[in-house]
Write a structure and sequence with these properties.
With about 80 residues, the chain is α+β, with helices and mostly antiparallel strands. The chain has helices at about 20-30, 60-70; strands at about 1-5, 10-15, 35-45, 50-55, 70-75. It is built from two helices and five strands; from the N terminus they run ββαββαβ.
Length: about 80
C-alpha cells in the first residue's frame, strides 16, 4: 500500500521475524539509512513496517535493508 501526500509517500511492508522492540529498532535503523526515508514505524506484533519517504522507494533497496537487519520482507501490505 502506498499513499502520496504533501508530507511524503507512505508505504506499508509486511516483514517476518520481528518479535520485540529490539527487532523494531534494528529494522528502523536500517530503513532510516535509505535515501529519502523520513520516518519508520516497525510493529512486531503486526509484522508490519510503515515507511514515510520523500518519494517512492525501490522495493529491492527496502528488501536489502530488511535483510541486512536480519529479517525477511514479504512484500507490500
Amino acid at each position: 500500500m502506498t499513499h502520496g501526500t504533501t508530507a511524503g509517500t507512505t508505504t506499508v511492508y509486511q516483514v517476518t521475524g520481528m518479535t520485540c522492540g529490539h527487532c523494531e529498532s534494528a529494522i528502523g535503523s536500517e530503513l532510516s539509512a535509505l535515501d529519502g526515508v523520513t520516518s519508520v514505524k516497525a510493529e512486531a506484533s503486526a509484522n508490519r513496517v510503515t515507511v514515510v519517504s520523500t518519494g517512492p522507494l525501490d522495493d529491492e533497496a527496502v528488501r536489502a535493508a530488511v535483510d541486512e537487519a536480519g529479517y525477511e520482507l514479504v512484500g507490500r501490505a
